[in-house]
Amino acid sequence: DHTSRLLHWIIPGLGLVTLGIALHFSNAIPLNKQLYTFSYVCVTAGAAALVLAAFYVLVDVFKFGYPFLPLQWVGMNAMLVYVMAAEGIFPGFVNGWYYGEPGSTLVNWIQDHVFVDVWHSRKVGILLYVIFGEILFWAVVSGILHRLAIYWKL
């Protein structure tokens, strides 16, 4: 049932987050993404379990799945999104076309003029670019491919 599933995700998730944060603040093992330290792995794995539990409650318990359809589409073409976006193939292709000088690419122009200049903050602009320029873009591409019944799979 729903309760036992949620307990299997929430209890270990909270335990891992607590362990990772305790290791970090006790100076035993600091959080360090570049080294993938044990504390970093605990925090990210625990957070993933908690996010999974939250999505489960929203989609399967409360039947609030329609807003999460783009995530379902991305999941159906996860290999495409990973290869093209996470491995940098598509951004590398787009950045290969520049104007004026090599640093003047379409991606940099979009980041600077559409997101950073509007919010007057580099950090907020880059965050919004990742949310809307990357994640939303690949959700739309995945949705179109889902509509056409095209899926990348092994």
What does this molecule look like?
The protein is mainly α. The protein folds into two domains: 1-62; 65-153, no CATH class. Helices cover 73% and strands 0% of the residues. The protein contains seven helices and no strands. The longest helix is centred in the C-terminal third of the chain and has 26 residues, at 122-147. The model has no long low-confidence stretch (mean pLDDT 89). This is Heparan-alpha-glucosaminide N-acetyltransferase catalytic domain-containing protein. The chain crosses the membrane at residues 6-25, 37-59, 79-99, 126-152. Keywords: Membrane, Transmembrane, Transmembrane helix.
Keywords:
154 residues, mainly alpha, 73% helix, 0% strand
Question: TL;DR of this structure?
Answer:
Helices cover 73% and strands 0% of the residues. It is built from seven helices and no strands.
How are the SSEs placed, and which strands pair?
Elements: H1 2-25, H2 38-61, H3 69-76, H4 78-86, H5 89-95, H6 106-119, H7 122-147
Helix pairs in contact: 1-2, 3-7, 6-7
The structural class is mainly alpha
Q: What number is the mean pLDDT?
A: 89
- Amount of beta strand: under 5%
Number of spatially distinct domains: 2
What is the alpha-carbon Rg in Å?
19 Å
Q: Helix count, per DSSP?
A: 7
Largest sheet, in brief, is: none
Number of strands: 0
Helix proportion? over 70%
Order of helices and strands: HHHHHHH
Principal-axes shape call: globular
Give the uncertain stretches in residue-range form: none
Give the N-to-C terminal Cα separation.
Answer: 32 Å
